Amino acid sequence: MDTVVWTVALMAAVGLVGSVLLLIVSRKLAIGEDERLTYLMSILPGVNCGACGHPGCEQYAKAMMNGAPPNACTTGGDRVAQALAAYLGVESTGVVQREAFVACQGSLDHIDPQLVFKGVPSCRVFSTLSYSSLSCPFGCLGYGDCAEACPFDAIVVENGVARIDTAACTGCGTCAKICPRGIISMVDQASSPTASVVTCKNTMAGAKTRKVCSVGCIGCQKCAKTCPTQSITVENNLARIDTDTCIGCGTCIEVCPTHAISKLVFQ
Predict the structure, then answer these.
(1) Which end of the chain is more exposed for a tag (fewer CB within 10 A), N or C?
(2) 3 within a domain of the structure (yes/no)
């Protein structure tokens, strides 16, 4: 009987000691993880823009602790990527430069306003109510939802069209996500420091486009025929440029009869 009691007591003691040791180790590991997370967060910009593909900086920091690459923060750029890589003990790779551009030049001196909207000055509200104050149903609504959402004050509305300050733009993509007409796009830098972009989204036939906007793409294909790298195609009456292969030579800009192609400079 005494043997059974001592055996049970010994097993209980071993179990208790093991539990205590496990608790101590887990707390030490937790403290270590908390310290890593705190340090990674101190390196990141902390603007929670979502450019990295995560909801915020904390989520990205946790992802890096689980192996995510340290070069996804376009807001922080190469400096932040190098600091993150150094702390994590991994190879530092450059951040791909990304810029936003507005695919519309339909300012008030280029289009024909059809009516004045007197409701809430919001692109999303305007779009939801299916109002159309412009002759072009594809153009920028100009109420500045993107400007309000931009965490870096890189957008202003001038003469009815959103304009992006590429020097201030960090490529976070917040504006592109919020635009109800999808006319703001993100372009990743390829091999050239510049790229040509079509500043129009109008897919109407050329004759109809000319009637509603003097700087809209008319699908004439002159740009596609002269592009030395075959980076341009015309689909559904609208020119489209493959920025991955575009070398930024500007030939398309020179031949476009309506000036619907512009040069995007990566900062």
Answers:
(1) N
(2) no
Model confidence pTM above 0.70: yes
Q: Is 144 in the same domain as 233? A: yes
Q: Do 96 and 64 contact (CB within 8 A), yes or no?
A: no
Same domain, 205 and 82: no
Residue ranges of the annotated binding site are: 49, 52, 57, 73, 136, 140, 146, 150, 169, 172, 175, 179
197: Cα separation from own chain's centroid: 16
Q: Residue 249 sits in a domain of what CATH number?
A: 3.30.70.20
Binding residues for [4Fe-4S] cluster: 49, 52, 57, 73, 136, 140, 146, 150, 169, 172, 175, 179
Which amino acid would we find at residue 130?
S
Which residues does 207 contact at the CB level (< 8 Å), separation at least 6? Answer: 218
The pLDDT value given to residue 113: 58
Instruction: Report, as ranges of residue numbers, the positions in the chain whose pLDDT lies below 70.
Output: 1-33, 109-119, 130-134
Question: For residue range 73-104, what is the model confidence (pLDDT) as tens digits?
Answer: 988 888 999 999 999 999 877 888 888 999 99
Query: Cα(98)–Cα(171) distance, rounded to whole angstroms?
Result: 5
